[in-house]
């Protein structure tokens, strides 16, 4: 449903997109992960037909995003990374305008407002960042489109609203929607995405299933032993960092958890602590690895 094929937009040294390719199928959520300036928003703007590629192609539903942008926009619910709405209008007036533009139903609007409640009589210029984000979320999903392009969808909203957004995203996925989501909020990516791509300086670092991405990461462990001599022996044997009776290590192809456990079976082990096995750890692992000489 969403297709990028060797898309390139060169803005200068390290800026833009370079040979980016991926697909998002109906009934799936694709996570786009990377630091600010990595190219996430640039890719989404290409998909919306707002900018043209130097080379390559972006398409949605078989329509070329640049050459057939009107057809593409009919298929897409779009949430930009920077919310810019008419400051003089109230929330109700903004949603009225969006309903007319998209042919949205009042029933769906009411359902979304119950999920993301705010004072719709307030003018946009007086809204907080979180309230503007909720207004934009309601406006985006009110369209009930087959494709959603979401750039930092939970920016500025509280944890409860983040949970409600994740519930909504999973419901839309179950209805067969194709969703591309750029985000810095790792828990929502872990809980909702089927696949993810890590992008740095406009290039894809890795793209794979989200579970495989997490499984392939290196893990950090801290082991507390009952005797100084045991901690010293294990630290020397495996080249670990030692702090008194505690040793620390990061798993690798040469240093596996199984190998360490075999030695620990003969020791007085008081505690084993592991780093959280989450997407943020994976993100840091890949980016630190890419930056190392």
Please explain how this structure is put together.
- The chain has 293 residues and is α/β, with parallel strands linked by helices.
- It folds into 2 domains: 2-209, 3-Layer(aba) Sandwich (Rossmann fold); 220-276, 2-Layer Sandwich (Alpha-Beta Plaits).
- The protein is 38% helix and 28% strand.
- The protein is built from 11 helices and 14 strands.
- The protein has a 6-stranded mixed β-sheet, sandwiched between helices. Strands 2-1-4-5 form a 4-stranded antiparallel β-sheet, with helices on one face.
- Helix 3 (91-102) packs parallel to helix 5 (129-142) and helix 4 packs antiparallel against helix 5.
- It starts with a strand and ends with a helix.
């Amino acid at each position: 449903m969403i297709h990028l094929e060797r898309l390139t937009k060169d803005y200068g040294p390290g800026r833009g997109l370079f040979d980016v390719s991926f697909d998002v199928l109906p009934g799936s959520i694709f996570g786009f992960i990377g630091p600010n300036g990595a190219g996430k928003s640039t890719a989404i703007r290409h998909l919306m037909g707002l900018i043209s590629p130097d080379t390559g192609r972006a398409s949605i539903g078989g329509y070329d995003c640049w050459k057939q942008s009107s057809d593409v926009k009919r298929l897409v619910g779009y949430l930009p990374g920077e919310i810019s709405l008419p400051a003089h209008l109230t929330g109700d007036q903004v949603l009225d305008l969006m309903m007319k533009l998209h042919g949205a139903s009042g029933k769906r609007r009411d359902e979304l407002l119950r999920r993301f409640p705010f004072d719709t009589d307030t003018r946009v210029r007086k809204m907080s960042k979180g309230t503007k984000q909720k207004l934009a979320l309601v406006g985006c999903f009110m369209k009930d489109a087959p494709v959603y392009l979401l750039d930092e969808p939970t920016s500025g909203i509280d944890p409860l609203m983040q949970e409600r957004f994740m519930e909504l995203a999973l419901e839309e996925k179950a209805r067969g929607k194709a969703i591309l989501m750029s985000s810095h909020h790792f828990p929502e990516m872990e809980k909702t995405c089927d696949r993810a791509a890590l992008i740095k300086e406009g290039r894809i670092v890795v793209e794979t299933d989200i579970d495989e991405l997490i499984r392939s990461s290196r893990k950090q462990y801290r082991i507390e032993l009952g005797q100084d001599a045991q901690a010293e022996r294990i630290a020397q044997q495996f080249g670990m960092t030692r702090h008194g009776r505690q040793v620390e290590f990061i798993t690798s192809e040469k240093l596996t958890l199984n190998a360490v456990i075999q030695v620990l079976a003969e020791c007085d082990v008081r505690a084993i602590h592991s780093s959280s096995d989450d997407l943020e750890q994976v993100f840091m692992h890949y980016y630190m690895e890419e930056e190392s000489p």
